[in-house]
Amino acid sequence: MASVRPSLIEFPADDPERARRFWSGVLGTELEQRSQPEGEGWQTHTHGTEVGVHARGRGPGDSFSLPYLTVPDIPAALERVIALGGAVVHPGERWAICRDSEGSPFALAAELAELAEQR
After folding, report:
1. Is the Cβ–Cβ distance between 43 and 52 less than 8 Å?
2. Which domains does the chain have, with CATH numbers?
3. Helix, coil or strand: residue 34
4. Where does the pLDDT of residue 50 fall: very low under 50, low under 70, confident under 90, or very high at 90 and above?
5. Staple 9 to which of 34, 46, 67, 72, CB 3.0 to 4.6 Å?
6. To which H or E segment does residue 41 belong?
């Protein structure tokens, strides 16, 4: 069996343009427009896990998600979340729960020291 890894994290948004600005700022890369039969959306195009935004709807994938994003510095990441219009729901040293500019929850996880040393 092939290993399973996240390939796309999709965030529903009441204001997709505001969400695009927020996630572009957090990730440091632009979300590019895509059009699919299921509806319009935007996403990153990287070699790792893709991040996307779509207009909030009534479908099962349109209400919320809770992805974990690894960061090298939790306090700095929390400051950036707040500066970009997000909120910190549960701060912590190893992980923190936040909400983006649209109210969608997500988590930040501290990068493991062993991984940071290998980079």
Report:
1. yes
2. 8-118 (3.10.180.10)
3. strand
4. confident
5. 67
6. strand 39-43
